[in-house]
Amino acid sequence: MASGAASTTGWFPVARATDVGTAPVPVVAGDRAYVVVRLRPGGEISAFPARCPHRLVPLSTATVTEGRLQCPAHGWRFDPEGRCVDIPSLGAAGTPPPRADLAMPWAVEERQGWVWLAPDRTATPAPPRACDVSAPAPSPVRTEPAGPVFANLDPSLERAWHPVALSRELRPGGWLQVRLLGRTWMLRRDGAVVSADPPAFGVRERLGVIWLAPGRPADVPLEVPEAGDRRFVSSWLPPLRSPGPAAPMVDTFLDATHGPFVHASTIGPADSAEVSPGPVHAEPGGFSSVQEQWCDNPVDPQVALGGRPLRQRRRTTYTYRAPFQVRLRQEFLDSGATTTIVYLVQPEDLDSSRLYVRLLLSAGPGQPLPTPATAAGQVALQQRILTEDIRSQAALDLAGLPLDRRAEVHVPADGRAVALRQALCDFMTLGQRQLAA
Ligand code: FES
Ligand SMILES: [Fe+2]
């Protein structure tokens, strides 16, 4: 029997066979992390790497569907040999690229009530016949991506305006303690002036938010034309906290392919899983991208009256500004209604981010403004959607967003994800240059 933390040669007993069913079990062999699972009830045991190659989601959260292992984030499916056999965003006719296949262990076997795993080719073709097997040690392996990640305490973040509270959270004459970049700041409102202690480069109010810049900012503010448009009604969601870094959360807000999976119980079923590539246009401080997608639009009153079909075309314009600002303008092309969602993320600590989400709704040309009841219903729905995103981020368990292209596998629908990683690399470089100057 192999032993020793660093070795990956030899056979490792990783789990009791009776503990492995059709829910993946995380295990460790040597210094490598895997999941073991039966792809059919009572069937053979298969072993897969611990993370999905796409966005590195832990496969311990995967499900078994039709004899395949399905990742919960974007629905990629893997057969028992680790071949990626389905990428829903490519559509039914799409073929997954070979680089989407999993790097599988050399062998896995069930023997004497134990699951044995050999990560690398070994001289012994089968596990030992008889030996004293004790319960495997609990996993000490934390699987992190190869290469650098963009984390919440990145030094470049000193040089940006960050949202630290909604304006309404700081009453006249009041004070508020906030966390930003691993430090505590005290905000005070005296008359029209908001100040910070310890002093910062600047504190300002914009878009109904208090912003703080620790050092001279190098970012470009996000514009929200809908905020000054009388055809829109506006509501803030109560701020929520995510137990993870800001950059992967922004990645989620820019992603059009996770809806049918992460949001399966809210808006997911309404969206087509097939997503065409959305071209990305570079802009000062970030980028924009327009994406059209089929979706169900049950809130269109004409659907119930038979004036329009349920399945409609939606055009989404994504606008991103580094480091953590996103505006999503969703235009329902048949009804003329528009929903704009503004996402602002505050990097509080390494493993904590606060989310500010503003909803701006328009019923379309010639239509009365959305009623307070409609706006309240939309806010409640967005809160549930955001809670699903936060749960998915918590399961991701990464220190930051991978910046090395080779750490993940990108497909054509991931254009904005690639652009985000590049924009954050540029932001880091700009920050380093300014610090050196
Ligand atoms: S399908 Fe696994 S992370 Fe996207
Ligand atoms: Fe989402």
UniProtKB/TrEMBL annotation:
SUPFAM superfamilies: Bet v1-like, ISP domain
Domain of life where this protein originates: Bacteria
Keyword Membrane part of the UniProt annotation: yes
A Pfam family that the UniProt record links to this protein: Rieske
Subcellular location: Membrane
Domain called Rieske: residue spans: 11-117
InterPro entries the record matches: Cholesterol_7-desaturase, Rieske_2Fe-2S, Rieske_2Fe-2S_sf, VanA_C_cat
Region (Disordered): 272-292
Keywords for this protein: 2Fe-2S, Iron, Iron-sulfur, Membrane, Metal-binding, Oxidoreductase, Transmembrane, Transmembrane helix
Entry protein name: Rieske 2Fe-2S domain-containing protein
Species this chain originates from: Blastococcus deserti
